[in-house]
């Protein structure tokens, strides 16, 4: 019987695991880190462990050879934990980049048998342990850059989102448009600037020759419809802009204004001059979008933020 010779060990690709589970804005902010890891491990087989909403974006990025979907087992689901333990140990990872930096991802470190792979993260026992800084707020991108530097990677800089493309023909876009993102997490209403002020902003943009495009998902449908009804000429695109389309729209937008919500991270990273509005429910020093032209405006309550203040803070439209 003929048998093929075993593949020489020096030709077996290095096995790398990257962990990034959520949330939307955090995932977008880590894309530059993904690209830095891919550039550093050009010949490796890189696996991303993430959650289902980000599979398509991760696949399109070209940074990963395979995607594992984390089912996030509950503590009492012993069978699921055992299956995850077997999967992690069978993969033969030589290095793990824990970009989630959470108790859950730290638990995955403890599932690995000794000798453990190199682990770049915050968990005690990691070979490249990153100690989260105290003192003044540090942006997640700077924390991630410092973490990757422990493993010899250069500062990631801004992400390249050229891989995110979409056919926008059916949207029949005007020549010049501004993106408005008036929604946000339903359980955090304090992060939303009032819809009547978004309507006033939309009128102002129309007067400047910019068509307002109102973006959001199903939970924001009523709010967006109300703004569109109040401002003839504004376009309601609620539910018509999947992730790839958001990036493509951001690439062509003259301007974008929105609350602290995931889509603004993607729009800003794609290149739209962006203004992001914050209440004291979140801190832009830690989690503001990153892009070529991003400004933030923060008030204790967005109810107290006037249209005039927003207009004064708008970045130059392109």
Q: How does this structure look, described?
A:
34% of the residues lie in helices and 16% in strands. With 318 residues, the chain is of the alpha/beta class. The longest helix has 13 residues, at 78-90.
Task: Write out key terms for the chains shown.
318 residues; alpha/beta; 16% strand
Strand content: 15-25%
Class of secondary structure makeup: alpha/beta
Shape: elongated
Q: Tell me the number of helical segments per DSSP (H or I, 4 or more residues long).
A: 12
What is the residue-averaged pLDDT?
94
Cα distance spanning the termini: 69 Å
The secondary-structure element order is EHHEHEHEHEEHEHEHEHEHEHEH
Low-pLDDT residue spans? 1-9
Largest sheet: 6 strands, parallel
Q: Strand sequence of the main sheet, in spatial order?
A: 3-2-1-4-5-6
Number of strands: 12
* Rg over CA atoms: 22 Å
- Helical content stands at 25-40%
Give a brief description.
34% of the residues lie in helices and 16% in strands. It contains 12 helices and 12 strands. The model is unreliable at 1-9 (pLDDT under 50).
């Amino acid at each position: 019987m003929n048998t093929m010779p075993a593949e020489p060990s020096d030709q077996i690709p290095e096995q790398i695991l990257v962990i990034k589970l959520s949330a939307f804005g955090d995932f977008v902010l880590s894309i530059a880190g993904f690209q830095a890891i891919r550039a550093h491990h050009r010949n490796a087989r890189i696996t991303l462990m993430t959650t289902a909403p980000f599979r398509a974006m991760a696949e399109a990025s070209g940074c990963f050879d395979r995607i594992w979907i984390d089912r996030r087992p509950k503590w009492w689901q012993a069978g699921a934990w055992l299956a995850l333990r077997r999967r992690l140990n069978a993969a033969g990872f030589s290095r793990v980049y824990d970009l989630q930096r959470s108790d859950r991802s730290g638990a995955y470190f403890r599932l690995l048998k000794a000798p453990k792979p190199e682990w770049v993260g915050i968990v005690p026992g990691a070979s490249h342990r990153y100690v989260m800084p105290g003192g003044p707020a540090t942006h997640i991108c700077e924390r991630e850059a410092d973490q990757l530097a422990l493993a010899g990677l250069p500062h990631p800089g801004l992400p390249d989102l050229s891989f995110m493309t979409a056919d926008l023909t059916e949207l029949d876009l005007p020549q010049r448009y501004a993106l408005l993102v008036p929604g946000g997490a339903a359980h955090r209403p304090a992060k939303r600037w009032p819809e009547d002020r978004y309507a006033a902003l939309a009128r102002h943009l129309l007067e400047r020759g910019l068509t307002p495009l109102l973006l959001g998902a199903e939970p924001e449908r009523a709010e967006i419809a109300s703004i569109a009804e109040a401002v003839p000429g504004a376009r309601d695109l609620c539910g018509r802009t999947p992730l790839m389309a958001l990036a493509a729209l951001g690439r062509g937008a003259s301007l974008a204004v929105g609350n602290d919500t995931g889509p603004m991270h993607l729009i800003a990273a794609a290149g739209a001059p962006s203004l992001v509005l914050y209440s004291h429910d979140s801190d832009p020093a830690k989690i503001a979008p990153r892009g070529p032209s991003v400004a933030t405006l923060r008030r204790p309550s967005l109810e107290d933020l006037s249209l005039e203040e927003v207009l004064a803070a708008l970045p130059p439209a392109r």
